[in-house]
Design goal:
There is one protein chain. The protein has 4 helices and 5 strands, in the order H-E-H-E-E-H-E-H-E. It has a 5-stranded mixed sheet, with helices on one face.
Length: about 190
């Protein structure tokens, strides 16, 4: 049986109350504030990591052949450096293929003649498969970036037009260390 009601006093039943007592002022916002602070800290950390990666100077394009050799000796004097041959000295040994990716007849031969006049070894000179290209790209095989950059300079192509060979370009000529895909920009020069 229930106790008689007394004014100003809560009724008590025999079963426990299922309601949660109200929280004090400001206490109900604490979990939300904590989540907000955690989210803000994580957001700031994410921005810092992204900025570090973007501005650290590494874009992932560096390859082992483009890096200077690392010495593994532990002595006090460094080992003597191997004499390096400049790309110019090795030109006659580097095969360069040239493919015309324009509608201009003979443009690949004209570009190939410039390259050969600079001392490079001529490889295949032919037409490239479609589509036509507006800009010339100089592709290089592994370890031949310096030579490709030198070839690009000879024909007036900037460093942004020098790229590593992919398998599709490699399929055009298996022997060439450098493959030039001639674009319409070579018509002016």
């Amino acid at each position: 049986p229930a106790a008689p009601a007394v004014p100003g006093q809560a009724l008590r039943t025999t079963s426990p109350s299922a309601t949660v007592p109200p929280r004090g002022p400001g206490r109900s916002d604490r979990p939300r504030n904590t989540l907000g602070i955690v989210a803000a800290v994580l957001g700031v950390l994410t921005v810092v990591v992204v900025l570090f990666v973007v501005f650290s100077g590494g874009d992932g394009d560096e390859r082992a052949e483009d890096q200077p050799p690392v010495s593994t000796t532990t002595g006090t004097t460094p080992p003597p450096e191997e004499p390096r041959t400049s790309p110019r000295a090795a030109r006659g040994d580097v095969k360069v293929a040239v493919f015309n990716a324009t509608e201009v007849a003979g443009l690949a031969k004209t570009v190939a003649d410039k390259i050969v006049e600079s001392g490079w070894a001529r490889d295949e000179v032919s037409n490239a498969p479609p589509p036509s290209k507006s800009a010339t790209i100089v592709h290089y095989a592994e370890g031949a970036k310096a030579q490709a950059t030198d070839v690009a300079e000879v024909i007036g192509v900037g460093s942004d037009g020098v790229q590593p060979m992919d398998q599709n370009v490699r399929a055009l000529d298996d022997d060439a260390r450098v493959i030039v895909i001639v674009g319409a920009d070579q018509q002016q020069g």
